Amino acid sequence: xxxxxxxxxxxxxxxxxxxxxxxxxxxxxxxxxKRLRVSDGFEVLVSESFYMGRxxxxxxxxxxxxxxxxxxLVGNSVVARAINDGLVPERxxxxxxxxxxxxxxxx
Length: 107
Hints:
Layout: E1 9-16, E2 22-28, E3 35-39, E4 42-45, H1 48-51, E5 54-57, H2 58-65, E6 70-74, H3 76-84, E7 94-96, E8 99-105
Parallel strand pairs: 2-6
Antiparallel strand pairs: 1-2, 1-5, 3-4, 6-8, 7-8
């Protein structure tokens, strides 16, 4: 890792749904705009409209995770940090084309 982990930044964006949910979408920087191949004929786009709000350090992403009702994280780095900090259970994580993804909903 050539980047100091504390300096690592993530794309994040907060969405407010018409049903009153507050959604945090965050992804590793290098995944923005990429298509993750899940299987033949099926891929997931890490879409700029959903994830690209602004760049933020982990501390800011972490504090927002605690405040929103739905969390959507994509990327081996951001998901690993959320697991390490006890914010998401490892069993909730999925592998999408070799990249970790997790979505949490709080009721």
